[in-house]
Structures are given as structure tokens and as C-alpha cells.
Amino acid sequence: MNYRLISSATLLAGAMALSSSVFAESPLCGDGQDDSWMQPESVQEKVETMGYTIDNMGISEGNCYEVTGLNNQGQSVKAYLDPRTGDVVQEEVAQ
């Protein structure tokens, strides 16, 4: 029985390590919201001009605009945008 406990604990630790390496961390885009941030409507317009289709938009833990939807190639993505410029900082394509 002790063998199972150790074995389960080892599997759990391995799964946690694997899951943390599979999911990328949210990039850091600076401090919280301030007057230098673009308005969400302006960011949405810029992103759509770049060919993205937006399903959801919010603010990430790293203080970036976070957009989920489709990129200009039709791939399902999560994109992180600089809140001051609207430029893509990081894009994760769903597998």
C-alpha cells in the first residue's frame, strides 16, 4: 500500500510538472491600467484590421489585453496585446 501512495504522488508531481511546461505563461505588459492604455474598442479595431476574429477580450494576469478567437490564417488562438500600442506580444495557437 505504501508503494501505491508513493507511486501516485510521483505521478501527480510529474503531471503537474508536465502541465506547467505545456501552457505558456502570460507575458508581462507592465503595471496595471493607467491613462497610457488604449481603449478596448481601439484595440479591438486594430486587431480586427490585422485579420483576427475576436471571440473574447479581457485583461491577462500580466496586464496585457488577452484576446481569444481566430488569427488571420483561421487558426484558433489566444493572443496577448500590448495595452499601450495594441501590438501582439505573444500568440498561442490551439493544437
Topology:
Blueprint: H1 2-22, H2 40-49, E1 53-59, E2 65-70, E3 76-81, E4 88-93
Characterization of the model:
The protein has 95 residues and is α+β, with helices and mostly antiparallel strands. The protein has one domain: Nuclear Transport Factor 2, Chain: A (Roll). The chain is built from 2 helices and 4 strands. It has a 4-stranded antiparallel sheet, covered by helices on one side. A hairpin with a 5-residue loop joins strand 2 and strand 3. The termini are far apart. The model is unreliable at 1-23 (pLDDT under 50).
Key features of this structure:
95 residues, Nuclear Transport Factor 2, Chain: A, four-stranded antiparallel beta sheet, 4 strands
- Apparent shape: globular
Straight-line distance between termini: 38 Å
Strand order of the largest sheet: 1-2-3-4
CATH class category label = Alpha Beta
Percentage of residues in strands:
25-35%
SSE succession: HHEEEE
Give the tally of β-strands: 4
Q: Regions with pLDDT < 50 over 5+ consecutive residues?
A: 1-23
- The CATH architecture assignment turns out to be Roll
The structural class is alpha+beta
Which fold name is given in CATH as the topology?
Nuclear Transport Factor 2, Chain: A
What average pLDDT do the residues reach?
81
Tally of separate helices: 2
Using only C-alpha atoms, the radius of gyration works out to 18 Å
Largest sheet, in brief, is:
4 strands, antiparallel
Helix content: 25-40%
Number of self-contained structural domains: 1
